[in-house]
Amino acid sequence: MQEAPAATRPFTVPPFAQACLEAASDAWGASFQHPFVRALAEGTLDAERFRFYQMQDARYLEAFADACSLIATRCVRPDDKLWFIDAARLALVVERELHAGYGKKLGYTLEDVARIELTPNNRAYQDHMIATAVRGTLVEAVAAITPCPWLYVELGQHLARELGTIPDTHPYADWLRMYSNPEFNTYMDNLLERLERFAREADDAARARAKEAFRTSVRYEWMFWQQAWEQQRWPV
Ligand SMILES: Cc1ncc(CO)c(N)n1
């Protein structure tokens, strides 16, 4: 399975994050190979699938922001609360920025996004993050939201390396540029430092559950590409 070698990561991966990644390595590598991701990078992805993805993703990011907000209430240190409040805010702001652009190009509005039905995979991923934020220990809650930014940042940087420069004519240039933006490296340092600290404060059982929650989210990340690729519908 293809995975960006650790040496090329421009942010620090502390031991617990490394253990999470190793526990999820097959599912992690699979996202890099998904036909949706390959077509997105090559610029051959059809607009209908991308539109489907973007609309589902806007709703996903609302749940990600909710999970971060819930995590903020569970942190003890004000600095940690602030960081997760900022992460929630960033998810909502980023969503609006990308959507202002792609909504205009692909012909959908924020009202359209609010009206779509969530796919089974999207709903399941959202419910996993929210349930873990509410019922899990703090390290578990953070582990469940970590693959979301981490996988996209690695994917963005990996694709940017592969493509060299991203030409303005690339249909998904904005998407590729956003996730390969080096500003995310600081974000990752901050997130993984917190994951590490919360892991150190937890017991073995909580750490094991956190690794499992991380792995589940990595699997759902692959399933998120898949639901967009097949334009998933409820079977009944
Ligand atoms: C499903 C999903 N995972 C991760 C990200 C990165 O923010 C995103 N936008 N959507």
* Radius of gyration (Å): 17 Å
Distance between the termini: 35 Å
Shape by Cα distribution: globular
Tell me the strand percentage band: under 5%
The CATH architecture: Up-down Bundle
| Helix content range | over 70%
- According to CATH, the homologous superfamily is Heme oxygenase-like
Top-tier CATH class: Mainly Alpha
Overall pLDDT score = 95
- Give the topology string: H per helix, E per strand: HHHHHHHHHHHH
Task: Quickly count the domains.
Answer: 1
Helix tally equals 12
Uncertain segments are none
Question: How can the largest sheet be summarized?
Answer: none
Strands, total number? 0
CATH topology: Heme Oxygenase, Chain A
Pathway: Cofactor biosynthesis; thiamine diphosphate biosynthesis
Protein name: Aminopyrimidine aminohydrolase
Keywords: Hydrolase, Thiamine biosynthesis
Catalytic activity: 4-amino-5-aminomethyl-2-methylpyrimidine + H2O = 4-amino-5-hydroxymethyl-2-methylpyrimidine + NH4(+); thiamine + H2O = 5-(2-hydroxyethyl)-4-methylthiazole + 4-amino-5-hydroxymethyl-2-methylpyrimidine + H(+)
